[in-house]
From TrEMBL:
UniProt keyword annotation of Oxidoreductase present: yes
Pfam families in the record: Thioredoxin_4 (PF13462)
Name of protein: Protein-disulfide isomerase
Keywords, sorted A to Z: Disulfide bond, Isomerase, Oxidoreductase, Redox-active center, Signal
InterPro entries named in the record: Thioredoxin-like_fold, Thioredoxin-like_sf, Thioredoxin_domain
PROSITE patterns listed in its UniProt record: THIOREDOXIN_2 (PS51352)
Comp. bias regions, Low complexity: 64-76
Molecular function terms, GO-annotated: isomerase activity; oxidoreductase activity
UniProt family annotation: Belongs to the thioredoxin family. DsbA subfamily.
Region (Disordered): 1-27, 55-77
Amino acid sequence: MSRTPSGPSSRPAKRPAGQSAKRKSALTPRRLAAVGAVLALVVALVAAGIALGEHSGSGTRHPSGSAGSDAASAADPQQKLYTELDRAAARRQDGDALAVGKADAPVVLVEYADYQCSYCGKFTRDSQPELIKKYVDEGVLRIEFRNFPIFGKDSERAARASWAAGRQGKFWQFHDEVYAKTRKGDALAEDKLTDMARTAGVADLDRFRADLNGPESEAAVKKDQEQGYSIGVKSTPSFLVGGQPVAGAQPLEVFETAIARAKAAKQSGK
Protein backbone atom coordinates (compact mmCIF):
# COMPACT_ATOMS: atom_id res chain seq x y z
CA MET A 1 0.00 0.00 0.00
CA SER A 2 1.46 3.32 -0.98
CA ARG A 3 1.90 6.00 1.62
CA THR A 4 -0.78 8.67 1.56
CA PRO A 5 0.84 12.03 0.80
CA SER A 6 0.09 14.86 3.17
CA GLY A 7 -1.94 17.76 1.83
CA PRO A 8 -5.13 19.68 2.13
CA SER A 9 -7.24 16.87 0.71
CA SER A 10 -6.74 14.91 3.91
CA ARG A 11 -8.17 17.70 6.07
CA PRO A 12 -11.88 18.05 6.88
CA ALA A 13 -14.02 20.85 5.55
CA LYS A 14 -14.97 23.57 8.01
CA ARG A 15 -18.01 25.79 7.66
CA PRO A 16 -17.27 29.51 7.93
CA ALA A 17 -18.29 30.99 11.29
CA GLY A 18 -21.97 31.77 11.42
CA GLN A 19 -22.79 29.86 8.24
CA SER A 20 -25.02 27.30 9.93
CA ALA A 21 -27.32 29.97 11.34
CA LYS A 22 -27.56 31.74 8.01
CA ARG A 23 -28.35 28.50 6.22
CA LYS A 24 -31.09 27.58 8.69
CA SER A 25 -32.85 30.89 8.32
CA ALA A 26 -32.69 30.71 4.53
CA LEU A 27 -34.20 27.25 4.19
CA THR A 28 -37.86 26.80 3.43
CA PRO A 29 -39.78 24.06 5.26
CA ARG A 30 -39.79 21.98 2.08
CA ARG A 31 -36.03 22.39 1.70
CA LEU A 32 -35.50 21.53 5.36
CA ALA A 33 -37.46 18.34 4.90
CA ALA A 34 -35.47 17.42 1.80
CA VAL A 35 -32.14 18.11 3.49
CA GLY A 36 -33.21 16.14 6.54
CA ALA A 37 -34.07 13.18 4.36
CA VAL A 38 -30.69 13.29 2.64
CA LEU A 39 -28.86 13.62 5.95
CA ALA A 40 -30.69 10.53 7.17
CA LEU A 41 -29.35 8.71 4.13
CA VAL A 42 -25.82 9.83 4.93
CA VAL A 43 -26.18 8.50 8.48
CA ALA A 44 -27.12 5.15 6.99
CA LEU A 45 -24.10 5.29 4.70
CA VAL A 46 -21.83 6.04 7.65
CA ALA A 47 -23.18 2.95 9.37
CA ALA A 48 -22.37 0.98 6.24
CA GLY A 49 -18.78 2.21 6.36
CA ILE A 50 -18.86 4.13 3.08
CA ALA A 51 -19.55 7.71 4.21
CA LEU A 52 -18.49 10.70 2.18
CA GLY A 53 -15.29 12.38 3.18
CA GLU A 54 -13.51 9.45 4.82
CA HIS A 55 -10.34 9.99 2.83
CA SER A 56 -8.62 6.72 2.12
CA GLY A 57 -5.70 8.01 0.11
CA SER A 58 -4.96 8.17 -3.59
CA GLY A 59 -3.54 4.66 -3.70
CA THR A 60 -6.02 2.78 -1.56
CA ARG A 61 -9.22 1.27 -2.82
CA HIS A 62 -12.47 2.58 -1.37
CA PRO A 63 -14.52 -0.32 0.05
CA SER A 64 -17.28 0.31 -2.48
CA GLY A 65 -14.84 0.23 -5.38
CA SER A 66 -13.83 -3.44 -5.38
CA ALA A 67 -14.13 -5.33 -8.61
CA GLY A 68 -17.26 -7.29 -9.36
CA SER A 69 -19.80 -8.09 -12.02
CA ASP A 70 -22.44 -5.62 -13.16
CA ALA A 71 -25.12 -7.97 -11.85
CA ALA A 72 -23.60 -8.07 -8.39
CA SER A 73 -23.14 -4.31 -8.41
CA ALA A 74 -26.75 -3.71 -9.38
CA ALA A 75 -27.82 -5.90 -6.45
CA ASP A 76 -25.96 -3.74 -3.93
CA PRO A 77 -28.20 -3.46 -0.84
CA GLN A 78 -27.31 0.26 -0.62
CA GLN A 79 -28.60 0.99 -4.13
CA LYS A 80 -31.78 2.68 -2.92
CA LEU A 81 -29.65 5.09 -0.89
CA TYR A 82 -27.40 5.76 -3.88
CA THR A 83 -30.43 6.54 -6.02
CA GLU A 84 -31.76 9.04 -3.49
CA LEU A 85 -28.38 10.75 -3.17
CA ASP A 86 -28.11 10.95 -6.95
CA ARG A 87 -31.51 12.62 -7.17
CA ALA A 88 -30.52 15.07 -4.44
CA ALA A 89 -27.15 16.04 -5.92
CA ALA A 90 -27.22 15.73 -9.73
CA ARG A 91 -28.66 18.78 -11.48
CA ARG A 92 -28.70 17.62 -15.12
CA GLN A 93 -29.24 21.19 -16.35
CA ASP A 94 -28.77 21.91 -20.04
CA GLY A 95 -26.22 24.65 -20.57
CA ASP A 96 -24.54 24.15 -17.18
CA ALA A 97 -21.07 25.65 -17.71
CA LEU A 98 -19.64 23.54 -14.88
CA ALA A 99 -20.74 20.24 -16.44
CA VAL A 100 -19.56 18.12 -19.33
CA GLY A 101 -21.58 15.38 -20.99
CA LYS A 102 -25.19 14.87 -21.96
CA ALA A 103 -27.83 15.97 -19.46
CA ASP A 104 -29.60 12.63 -19.92
CA ALA A 105 -26.50 10.45 -19.59
CA PRO A 106 -27.23 7.27 -17.58
CA VAL A 107 -24.63 8.12 -14.92
CA VAL A 108 -23.71 11.45 -13.31
CA LEU A 109 -20.44 11.91 -11.45
CA VAL A 110 -20.64 14.89 -9.08
CA GLU A 111 -17.29 16.18 -7.81
CA TYR A 112 -16.86 18.45 -4.78
CA ALA A 113 -13.43 20.08 -4.98
CA ASP A 114 -11.16 22.89 -3.81
CA TYR A 115 -8.57 24.51 -6.08
CA GLN A 116 -5.87 24.31 -3.39
CA CYS A 117 -6.47 20.58 -2.96
CA SER A 118 -3.58 18.56 -4.39
CA TYR A 119 -5.67 15.39 -4.66
CA CYS A 120 -8.30 17.29 -6.65
CA GLY A 121 -5.55 18.24 -9.09
CA LYS A 122 -4.39 14.63 -9.22
CA PHE A 123 -7.88 13.49 -10.18
CA THR A 124 -8.09 16.21 -12.85
CA ARG A 125 -4.75 15.29 -14.39
CA ASP A 126 -4.81 11.50 -14.03
CA SER A 127 -8.38 10.22 -14.08
CA GLN A 128 -10.68 12.85 -15.55
CA PRO A 129 -9.22 12.76 -19.11
CA GLU A 130 -9.65 8.99 -19.22
CA LEU A 131 -13.20 9.17 -17.89
CA ILE A 132 -14.10 11.78 -20.50
CA LYS A 133 -12.59 9.75 -23.32
CA LYS A 134 -14.05 6.40 -22.25
CA TYR A 135 -17.44 7.40 -20.84
CA VAL A 136 -18.40 11.04 -21.44
CA ASP A 137 -17.62 10.97 -25.15
CA GLU A 138 -19.63 7.73 -25.44
CA GLY A 139 -22.69 9.30 -23.78
CA VAL A 140 -22.53 7.09 -20.69
CA LEU A 141 -21.28 9.65 -18.15
CA ARG A 142 -21.87 13.29 -17.26
CA ILE A 143 -19.44 15.08 -14.93
CA GLU A 144 -20.78 17.95 -12.80
CA PHE A 145 -18.28 20.04 -10.86
CA ARG A 146 -19.17 21.65 -7.54
CA ASN A 147 -17.04 24.40 -6.04
CA PHE A 148 -16.38 23.36 -2.46
CA PRO A 149 -13.71 25.76 -1.13
CA ILE A 150 -12.62 24.70 2.34
CA PHE A 151 -9.20 26.31 2.71
CA GLY A 152 -10.05 29.97 3.09
CA LYS A 153 -10.16 33.11 0.98
CA ASP A 154 -7.70 31.97 -1.66
CA SER A 155 -9.81 28.89 -2.36
CA GLU A 156 -12.98 30.97 -2.43
CA ARG A 157 -11.41 33.46 -4.86
CA ALA A 158 -10.32 30.65 -7.18
CA ALA A 159 -13.78 29.08 -7.03
CA ARG A 160 -15.42 32.38 -7.97
CA ALA A 161 -12.88 32.84 -10.76
CA SER A 162 -13.77 29.44 -12.21
CA TRP A 163 -17.43 30.40 -12.21
CA ALA A 164 -16.52 33.71 -13.89
CA ALA A 165 -14.61 31.82 -16.60
CA GLY A 166 -17.67 29.66 -17.09
CA ARG A 167 -19.70 32.77 -17.86
CA GLN A 168 -17.62 33.04 -21.02
CA GLY A 169 -17.73 29.33 -21.85
CA LYS A 170 -14.24 28.62 -20.56
CA PHE A 171 -14.84 26.92 -17.23
CA TRP A 172 -13.16 23.62 -18.08
CA GLN A 173 -10.20 25.29 -19.78
CA PHE A 174 -9.68 27.49 -16.71
CA HIS A 175 -10.29 24.57 -14.33
CA ASP A 176 -7.62 22.48 -16.05
CA GLU A 177 -5.18 25.40 -16.14
CA VAL A 178 -5.48 25.96 -12.38
CA TYR A 179 -5.05 22.25 -11.70
CA ALA A 180 -2.11 21.87 -14.10
CA LYS A 181 0.01 22.01 -10.96
CA THR A 182 -0.61 22.47 -7.24
CA ARG A 183 -1.26 26.16 -6.53
CA LYS A 184 -1.68 27.70 -3.10
CA GLY A 185 -1.90 31.10 -1.45
CA ASP A 186 -0.54 33.95 -3.54
CA ALA A 187 -0.52 31.71 -6.61
CA LEU A 188 -4.29 32.21 -6.56
CA ALA A 189 -4.23 36.01 -6.17
CA GLU A 190 -6.58 37.88 -8.49
CA ASP A 191 -3.85 38.95 -10.91
CA LYS A 192 -2.58 35.35 -11.16
CA LEU A 193 -6.11 34.07 -11.73
CA THR A 194 -6.56 36.68 -14.46
CA ASP A 195 -3.35 35.48 -16.13
CA MET A 196 -4.66 31.92 -16.03
CA ALA A 197 -7.98 33.07 -17.45
CA ARG A 198 -6.10 34.67 -20.35
CA THR A 199 -4.20 31.43 -20.96
CA ALA A 200 -7.47 29.50 -20.80
CA GLY A 201 -8.93 31.64 -23.58
CA VAL A 202 -11.23 33.93 -21.61
CA ALA A 203 -11.74 36.80 -24.03
CA ASP A 204 -13.12 39.65 -21.92
CA LEU A 205 -10.85 39.95 -18.90
CA ASP A 206 -12.59 43.07 -17.58
CA ARG A 207 -15.85 41.15 -17.48
CA PHE A 208 -14.00 38.21 -15.91
CA ARG A 209 -12.79 40.39 -13.04
CA ALA A 210 -16.21 41.96 -12.59
CA ASP A 211 -17.89 38.54 -12.48
CA LEU A 212 -15.23 37.19 -10.11
CA ASN A 213 -15.94 39.98 -7.63
CA GLY A 214 -19.68 40.18 -8.17
CA PRO A 215 -22.51 38.87 -6.01
CA GLU A 216 -23.57 36.22 -8.52
CA SER A 217 -20.29 34.33 -8.26
CA GLU A 218 -20.51 34.44 -4.47
CA ALA A 219 -24.05 33.07 -4.58
CA ALA A 220 -23.13 30.32 -7.05
CA VAL A 221 -20.21 29.11 -4.92
CA LYS A 222 -22.31 29.18 -1.75
CA LYS A 223 -25.00 27.14 -3.51
CA ASP A 224 -22.46 24.43 -4.33
CA GLN A 225 -21.10 24.50 -0.78
CA GLU A 226 -24.57 24.23 0.73
CA GLN A 227 -25.35 21.21 -1.39
CA GLY A 228 -22.15 19.49 -0.30
CA TYR A 229 -22.71 20.20 3.37
CA SER A 230 -26.33 19.08 3.14
CA ILE A 231 -25.33 15.59 2.01
CA GLY A 232 -22.40 15.24 4.39
CA VAL A 233 -19.32 16.13 2.32
CA LYS A 234 -16.38 16.48 4.73
CA SER A 235 -13.25 16.64 2.57
CA THR A 236 -12.01 17.15 -0.97
CA PRO A 237 -12.21 15.61 -3.41
CA SER A 238 -15.47 13.84 -2.68
CA PHE A 239 -17.54 12.25 -5.41
CA LEU A 240 -20.95 10.79 -6.03
CA VAL A 241 -21.06 8.36 -8.95
CA GLY A 242 -24.69 7.65 -9.63
CA GLY A 243 -25.15 8.55 -5.96
CA GLN A 244 -22.47 6.15 -4.74
CA PRO A 245 -19.92 7.93 -2.52
CA VAL A 246 -16.26 7.71 -3.54
CA ALA A 247 -13.78 9.56 -1.32
CA GLY A 248 -10.42 10.82 -2.53
CA ALA A 249 -8.49 10.66 -5.79
CA GLN A 250 -8.88 6.92 -6.10
CA PRO A 251 -7.31 4.84 -8.89
CA LEU A 252 -9.12 4.97 -12.21
CA GLU A 253 -10.49 1.44 -11.82
CA VAL A 254 -12.42 2.48 -8.70
CA PHE A 255 -14.33 5.05 -10.74
CA GLU A 256 -14.80 2.56 -13.58
CA THR A 257 -16.32 0.02 -11.20
CA ALA A 258 -18.62 2.65 -9.70
CA ILE A 259 -19.73 3.77 -13.18
CA ALA A 260 -20.43 0.18 -14.22
CA ARG A 261 -22.48 -0.37 -11.06
CA ALA A 262 -24.45 2.83 -11.55
CA LYS A 263 -25.10 2.07 -15.22
CA ALA A 264 -26.29 -1.45 -14.40
CA ALA A 265 -28.60 -0.10 -11.68
CA LYS A 266 -30.01 2.49 -14.09
CA GLN A 267 -30.68 -0.17 -16.71
CA SER A 268 -32.39 -2.38 -14.16
CA GLY A 269 -34.63 0.51 -13.14
CA LYS A 270 -33.39 0.65 -9.54
